[in-house]
Specification:
The chain is of the alpha/beta class. About 50% of the residues lie in helices and about 15% in strands. The chain has a 7-stranded parallel beta sheet with strand order 3-2-1-4-5-6-9, with helices on both faces. Strands 7-8 form a two-stranded parallel ribbon. The N and C termini lie far apart (about 45 Å).
Length: about 250
C-alpha cells in the first residue's frame, strides 16, 4: 500500500506520514520544503519513502506530481493549505489567489485525476482536509473559510456520486477545529480556545478512515459547535464568527 500526502513537511501531514509508516504504508511526501521532507524521510526507516518537493499552488507542478504517480497510489491525503486573517479589502490579492490555487485548485486536480484511477480499478481512498470553517461564512478570514467550504462540498458531492456508481472507492473529509500546527503562524492568528494536538487529530482520523467515515470531526466539543451553528440565525452567526476571528488576530 502506498499513500501520497500533500503538505507533509509539518503539522497534520507530518503526523499522518509517521502513523501510516507504522502501519506499513510506503509514502510519497509532498511539500515545498525539501529539507523538511528529507529529514522526515530519514526518520521513517522501515518503509519506502519518496519525496516530491514542489509548490502545489502552481498548476503545472500539480500535473507533474500526478503524472509521476498515476496508478501508483492507494491512499491520497490532500492536506496542503494555508489561511490568512484580516479584512477582505486589506489582505494582499496575490496571497489570496495563491491560497485559492493551493487550497482549491491543486486539491481539485489531484482529487479528480486520482479518483479516475481509483474508479477504474475499483479501489482506493481519498481524504480531503477541510476545517470547521467549512460550515459557516468567516468574516476576517473570508477567503480561507470559502476555500474550505469548497473542499467540504466537493467531497460530499463525490461521495454521493460514488454511491450511485456502486464503486468501492472511498472518500472522506476531515473538518478539525483549532489544532496545534503551523497553521496559526502562517495565518497570523492566535487561537482563542484550547487547541487539539496534531497527534490526536491524525490518530482519530485514521481510525475513522478505516471505518470509511465520510465526515470526520475530531472531539465531541467540535461536533457540538457544528450542531449548534445549524440553529443560529445567519446574521447572529456572522456576528459570533467575527468576534471569534477578531480575538485571534495578533
Amino acid at each position: 500500500m502506498r499513500a501520497l500526502i500533500t503538505g507533509s513537511s509539518n503539522g497534520l501531514g507530518r503526523d499522518f506520514a509517521i502513523k501510516l509508516a507504522k502501519e506499513g504504508y510506503d509514502l510519497v511526501l509532498v511539500a515545498r520544503s525539501e529539507d523538511k521532507l528529507l529529514k522526515l524521510k530519514n526518520e521513517l526507516k522501515d518503509v519506502n519513502v519518496e519525496v516530491f518537493p514542489t509548490d502545489l499552488s502552481v498548476k503545472e507542478n500539480v500535473l507533474k506530481l500526478y503524472e509521476k504517480y498515476k496508478n501508483k497510489i492507494d491512499l491520497l491525503i490532500n492536506n496542503a493549505g494555508f489561511g490568512e486573517c484580516g479584512y477582505f479589502n486589506k489582505i494582499d490579492l496575490d496571497n489570496e489567489l495563491n491560497m485559492i490555487d493551493l487550497n482549491i485548485t491543486s486539491l481539485h486536480i489531484l482529487t479528480k485525476l486520482f479518483l479516475k484511477d481509483f474508479i477504474n480499478k475499483d479501489k482506493g481512498q481519498i481524504l480531503n482536509v477541510a476545517s470547521l470553517a467549512s460550515f459557516e461564512p468567516g468574516p476576517l478570514m473570508a477567503t480561507y473559510y470559502s476555500t474550505k467550504a469548497y473542499v467540504y462540498n466537493l467531497t460530499m458531492a463525490i461521495y454521493e456520486e460514488l454511491k450511485h456508481l456502486k464503486s468501492n472507492v472511498k472518500i472522506s473529509v476531515l473538518c478539525p477545529g483549532p489544532t496545534d500546527t503551523g497553521f496559526n503562524d502562517r495565518a497570523h492568528v492566535k487561537f482563542g480556545v484550547k487547541s487539539l494536538t496534531s497527534d490526536y487529530v491524525t490518530d482519530y482520523t485514521l481510525k475513522k478512515l478505516k471505518k470509511n467515515k465520510l465526515l470526520i470531526i475530531p472531539s465531541l466539543r467540535m461536533k457540538l459547535v457544528v450542531f449548534g451553528t445549524r440553529f443560529m440565525p445567519r446574521k447572529l452567526l456572522l456576528k459570533f464568527t467575527y468576534n471569534v476571528q477578531e480575538r485571534k488576530i495578533k
